[in-house]
Amino acid sequence: MACGESKESADLIVLNANMYTLIEGLPKAEAFAVRDGRFIGVGSSEDIQRDYRSEKVLDVNGKTVIPGLIDAHCHFYGLGLNQLKVDLVGTESFEEILERLDAFYKENPGNYLLGRGWDQNDWEVKEFPTNEELDKRYPDIPVVLERVDGHAYLVNQKALDLAGINAETNPDDGEVVRINGEETGVLVDGPMFLIDKILPAPDRATKIRALQQAEEICFDYGLTTVNDAGLDRDIIELIDSLQQAGDLKMRVYAMVSNSEENLDHFLEKGIIKTDRLNVRSVKVYGDGALGSRGAALRAPYSDKKGHYGAMITTAEELEVLASRLANSDYQMNTHAIGDSANIAVLRAYKKALEGKEDRRWKVEHAQIISAPDFDYFETGIIPSVQPTHATSDMYWAGDRLGADRMPGAYAFKELLDRAGIVALGTDFPVERVNPFHTFYASVARKDLKGYPDSGFQMKDALSREETLKGMTIWAAYSNFEEGEKGSIEAGKWADFVILNGDIMTISEEEIPTMSAEKVYLAGEQVK
Asked: What is the pLDDT of residues 389-408, one digit of tens each?
């Protein structure tokens, strides 16, 4: 009896695991104990059984256990809203888009029609579509179809008219695509915001449903923290209220969307930190996306003469904003795809951060870097990259960039070598939510069909250890959260995933089909 009483009580004990703790490298452990939502002991099954007692003991019989996965760059709220739109991902022609629209609208008639996920690069004719057929089928309601990367719309004439987009609309921060002087309905970057203004905002019930649907999807894949790359004040406050009421459990690292209203509020308020919400960063758009030729390049696109893409936030504006944020406690996280955008962001960071320590500012995507510019990442700037972008874009990226620029594109290993860490994400719903696809793209540099056989630019593949760190402890570090998550370690939140296989040893081909069998957040099973 005395021996039993000497044991510490725990709420949960997990035994006989093949566990990757991520403590100081990649040591293995077999067991842990949890109390009040945190790990209180990690070690061998024998040690844990000797030191702890619990009414709830889970013997996992050798299954692999890893820390809860973190998606370092995604659009969590956007994923939820997407469930209310026509899913256009994977369409292989514009005709297939029309079929999906018609089927959806027949079941869900309304005053507008929204879709997301088309990519002309997946079609036989790899050109932007036009709105001619949309105008014939839907002349009386606005139709807005978002490209897969979120950086272009195809809209019908009704939407153009309501937004006031006409021959006089010639923005510097994007493009109204025209053929023979006539609007095609394709809008790249800047003018998309004119369309956004005419769309009805979702009501509170719809917003809540979107967040909860996104949570269900993410938990199913083993994600326990999501970095939402761009949220307005109302959604951040809604997330906080739902979390406080117990109606939303997902941990959210919320990047504040760069608007004057948001900045004035949050910079004055300072960092907001709870057990499940962390608000301490601002999301900025440097340029657009490569797929829609909105990425800002130093030399013209190889497949579009005289076209350089466009900055959404100019170099001068980046410097002003960086200076303002450097004088606050907030992190600056800037979307930069093209080499011109990346150097503008890196220069602004260097100037603003001079003399400042441990700010952990991020370049989101860091997709195309000129060779000399990799040096900037040796100064504490963190690359936040998405491995599946490389394997999605590899079919056409060379056409956009030409051979000379490709060595600096999707160069994840080079970025890791310079920065010391990389934070890994998906950018969902631009890509699929599945983190095992991220893992596979990172180590194999292949798409889900196993193409190419030898991998895409394998010099920049990451090892399995580096990849797992990028999805756990390094992602946590990039959020200033390495003291509370990212490893299975006493004192940290008991966020962990039980996998259906050993992700560190199974064959490469098996990685994409892996799944999260059970998912725990703060010691509570959420899947």
From this structure: 999 999 999 999 999 999 99
Distances (CA, A) of 519 to 105, 336, 423: 36, 33, 21
Residue type at position 309: G
Query: In angstroms, rounded to a whole number, what is the distance separating the alpha carbons of residues 135 and 131?
Result: 6
Beta bridge partners of 525: 520
Whole-prediction pTM: 0.90
Q: CA of 164: how far to CAs of 193, 199, 318, in Å? A: 12, 13, 29
Domains of the chain with CATH codes:
2-62 (2.30.40.10), 71-75+203-521 (3.20.20.140), 85-196 (3.10.310.70)
Share of the chain above pLDDT 90, in %: 95
Tell me the two tokens of residue 400: 């956009």
CB 73 within 8 A of CB 229: yes
> CA 312 to CA 431: how far, in whole Å?
22
- pLDDT tens, position by position, 299-354: 999 999 999 999 999 999 999 999 999 999 999 999 999 999 999 999 999 999 99
3-state secondary structure 114-143: EEEEECHHHCCCCCCCCCHHHHHHCCCCCE
Q: What's the pLDDT tens digit per position in 437-490?
A: 999 999 999 999 999 999 999 999 999 999 999 999 999 999 999 999 999 999
